[in-house]
Amino acid sequence: MKPQAPPRTRLGEMLVKTGAITEDQLRQALVEQDRVRRPIGQTLLSLGFVSDETMRQALGAQLNVPYIDLDRVAIDRGLSDLVDRGFAEQHHLMPVARIGPTLTVAMDDPTATAVVQDLSRMTGLTINLVTSSSQAIAGAFQRAYGSPLPPAGTDPAAAPTPAGVSLSLDWIRDMEFRSSAGFPAIELHSSSPAIASPPQALAYAVMACMAMDVVHVLKKTRCDLKALTVRFEGERAAEPPRRFVSMRLHFDLTGNTAAHIVERAIELSRTRYCSVWNTLRTDVSLETSFTIKS
Q1: Do the strands 102-107 and 244-256 form a parallel or antiparallel pair, or are they unpaired?
Q2: Does 158 reside within a domain?
Q3: pLDDT tens by residue, 164-203
């Protein structure tokens, strides 16, 4: 029978033992944690009982994850090509060093094992996890990616509302429409086989949106992509409003590209990045597949 690993010391208890906080401060933090439903470390930070660096060092010791001071580490800007900027920003992480097949990554939340698994699939590398202060991670991100990193835990709902989309469409004749002057070009017909109908335009939008995401991820992971064709098959309901009930996308790729990276790129587009697909109704079935030719 395999022996069980010893239980981890709780973060709050560890901070009390090291003298970073008092028993009374921990009790106050636990009451506040129950109210705000946040991790104890973030609660202690918000109450001003510990510094970010102290909390991170204790968290690293609790999880057996090394703590490093990123302010003292020279960041190779080339590492930013390995990890998509949006992914790094979303999960508040920073690639620090690469030695052969191992990529060392500093994460604000070293407990996020699913993020580590995603990163390993995206890069095809083994991830060596370290942690650092949020401020140090943000500073390293600025140096590597050339733009500021929003604070960890920033509520997207509290962020400024992105600029809206404004378009204009003119009726030509019959069931034919064209974008108004000064707007991005598009023409839509209801029955002409030479011009896309609105449902076909929607299908093209899903294809293009996901294909752009796939290309972006593959380029970021330095895959040798030479060509890409996306094919669409869809089924619509027999009765009005004759909406799409299912979609199938097949990606034909040419180049030296690993299958697991392509698979993950498609999954990231579907679940996180593609605004068109994620705008559609959740009961629309979407199947994806791909082939790779060298």
Answers
A1: unpaired
A2: no
A3: 788 999 999 999 999 999 889 999 999 888 999 999 999 9
DSSP three-state, residue 172: strand
Q: What is the pLDDT of residues 87-111, one digit of tens each?
A: 888 888 899 999 999 999 998 777 7
Tokens 């705008």 label which residue? 279
Q: What's the rounded Cα separation, in Å, for the pair 76 and 232?
A: 41
pLDDT tops 60 at residue 1: no
**Alpha helix stretches (DSSP H) within 96-167:** 113-123, 134-145
Q: If you search the block for the tokens 């996890």, which residue do you land on? A: 129
Regarding whether 134 and 54 lie in a shared domain, the answer is no
Q: Is 136 exposed, middle or buried (0-12, 13-18, 19+ CB in 10 A)?
A: buried
In a domain, 205, yes or no: yes
Q: Residue 55 belongs to what domain range?
A: 11-63
CA distance 190 to 196: 8
Q: Is the pTM of this model over 0.85?
A: no
Quick one: 54 and 94 in the same domain? no
Asked if 28 and 76 sit in the same domain, the reply is no
Cα gap 96→106, rounded to integer Å? 7
